[in-house]
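User: For my dataset I need records formatted as: sequence, then structure tokens, nothing else. Please produce one.
Assistant:
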Amino acid sequence: MSDFWQGRRVTVTGGRGFLGSRVVEIVRGHGADVFDCPSSDYDLTRQSEVARLYRDQRPEVVIHLAARVGGIGANRANPGRFFYENAIMGIEMMEQARLQGVAKYVQVGTVCAYPKFAPIPFSENDLWNGYPEETNAPYGLAKKMLLVQAQAYRQQYGLDAIYLLPVNLYGPRDNFDPESSHVIPALIGRCIEARESGAASITVWGTGTATREFLYVDDCAEAIIRATEVYENTTPLNIGCGRGTSIRELVDHIQKITAYDGRVFWNTSKPDGQMKKILDVSRMKEVLKWEPPTALPAGLQNTIQWYSAHKEEADLRL
């Protein structure tokens, strides 16, 4: 346990969400006084509401995780909403942090900020060398602007703001809504539904050749907490495992674990998205003295077990 957290007042936006709930649990375990900032209490797109949050909670450390997120379909359907809400929440949260003299501000970005044609694996040094993949560019660029804000505020105001770039996350308590979920929960839900209904096949978007890196949610929470403690640099920091898996391989893994042996049809009229997203995590390993411990098969097993045991609860969120 780190003395960094003992007795500190910490605000985690999105603290009741998929990733945020893990961060809150760990930080509380380290002795901090944590506020999980439920969305029903504060509208973070409104300046007055963000100011009220800071007055109410008086945080010394802020970890900004609240975001409007979704898979390819959700990004294509809501580019304006995803841009505006993600940009304005981050801008207002960071502005109030500097006005209130917050000791540490952690902005969590997205792998979608990387250029479409960035060399593989994605290095932090290549973040500005091109435009993001079009299907999620508004979301990626909104989050990328918050890196500019963090660097500018450190330079002008001395705000200790850091910017982290986690890769695609998965794990228990993920969003399993087929209309807005990311690829792993979407495939898990589809395979389990097909198995239970006796369907002979499922259909998956794209060609299956796109490659993604996946990070187990508990590992990401641990990395964020470690970075909050030790990282004090204007350079963004990748958070991931540095290993890629094709969507076709991912489907095979999920079929085996869910015991669904039907056929898979690939709808090639639908987009693959960016063909490869794999991070260079050498800086993360050096700075945090840490690597994520959860291998993909074990993480998928945990996720599928959780969904199978909590399917009714998860489906009620849709």
